[in-house]
What does this fold into?
Amino acid sequence: MRPERTEERPAPAALPEGLRLYVIGDVHGCADRLAQLLQLIAEDAATAPQSAHRLIFLGDYVDRGPDSRGAVDRVVAAPSFAAETVALMGNHEAMMLAALDRPDDEEAVSLWLANGALATLASYGADPNLPAALWGEEVGEAHRRFLRRLAKWHAAGGYLFVHAGIRPGVPLDAQNEEDLLWIREPFLSSPDDHGAVVVHGHTPTREPVVRPNRIGIDTGAVYGGKLTALVLWADRMRFIHV
It folds into this structure.
């Protein structure tokens, strides 16, 4: 699939002057496409008039795709075009961390295995037939620390960035972590003003979804769709796809 940059358009919220955000949706082990997308973002940033560039990942770096380890490596690496990188936790990182930290918890291990863990373990050279207690050694302490440090949400200007969404009508400081990582309904169909435009991944769609109260950018890269980055500045937006 050839790279694509969409035309700029009005955005449903605004950012402070001088700030440009690059927001990347669900990677799911598609490390090569992530590398391509980061290169396109670097090219965009090189000609952007804003002086402050921030890169935000919405989670789900691992599982299902061919190179989860490589995807995490690319998220961890600090790109030269961004003064700040924000990496959020997705439900797949939560499942992975639970299985690695609690290898005797059969429910946690089974849940991860049922949701794409085999591809992730293969990328780390870990044998799924060995006891789960040994998987963490192959993943390594550096990547486990990365998983533990992942934020649950991030706010900037008129936007709130989370992996899955929020529970409508519930203040941000009272949101349940499970909703931030897993929710679909009633969030996706809610017309409510959430107090900020929620930018999220988690629910794959063929094209990005832009509504007055939310922007969804999981475009199903691991299922043969695009890997998408949302570019936000002032009261404008565009998409970059690989």
Observations:
- Helices lie at 31-47, 68-76, 91-101, 106-113, 117-123, 135-139, 141-149, 177-182.
- The two ends are 6 Å apart (CA to CA).
